[in-house]
Amino acid sequence: MNKRDAEKLKQKVIEALLSNGFTPTPGGWRDYHGEGSKGVIDVSVDADKRYRQRGYDVCVFGVFEDVPRARAAGIDCNPYSGKLNFIFIESHQVDYMISQYI
């Protein structure tokens, strides 16, 4: 995927987050903050060159604050840190990512 397409996909991810109730967190350790049935989650979205060089076009890094709650809801996040990351190649994966976060 070229840089332009990666940026478009990044914008699609951001729009999906915002339309599902996530709010920007300027100056925070993550870019967006949201809360859903699976708990509170903080998310960063990146299409940086260092990831594209490894073949990862758009990366979404999420961390659930209440790990037991997220895992009880069926989320396969890290059982210790609550991390749930997505690396996108296709735009149709955005909907699946949102379903895991809210």
Please provide a written account of the structure:
- With 102 residues, the chain is α+β, with helices and mostly antiparallel strands.
- The chain contains four helices and five strands; from the N terminus they run αβββαβαβα.
- The protein has helices at residues 3-19, 49-52, 67-72, 93-101, and strands at 23-24, 32-36, 39-46, 58-64, 83-88.
- It has a five-stranded antiparallel β-sheet with strand order 1-2-3-4-5.
- The radius of gyration is 13 Å and the shape is globular.
- The mean pLDDT is 90.
List keywords for this structure.
alpha+beta; 102 residues; 27% strand; five-stranded antiparallel β-sheet; 4 helices; single chain; Aspartate Aminotransferase, domain 1
Distance between the termini: 28 Å
Task: Please outline the major beta sheet.
Answer: 5 strands, antiparallel
Count of DSSP E strands? Answer: 5
CATH topology: Aspartate Aminotransferase, domain 1
- Unreliable segments (pLDDT under 50, ≥5 consecutive)? none
Q: What pattern of helices and strands is seen along the backbone? A: HEEEHEHEH
Q: Tell me, what is the CATH class?
A: Alpha Beta
Count of DSSP helices?
A: 4
Percent range for helical residues? Answer: 25-40%
What integer value in Å does the Rg equal?
13 Å
Strand order in space, largest sheet: 1-2-3-4-5
Q: If classified by CATH, what would the architecture be?
A: Alpha-Beta Complex
Q: Structural class, from helix and strand content?
A: alpha+beta
Give the integer mean of the pLDDT values.
90
Shape descriptor reads globular
Strand content: 25-35%
Total domain count: 1
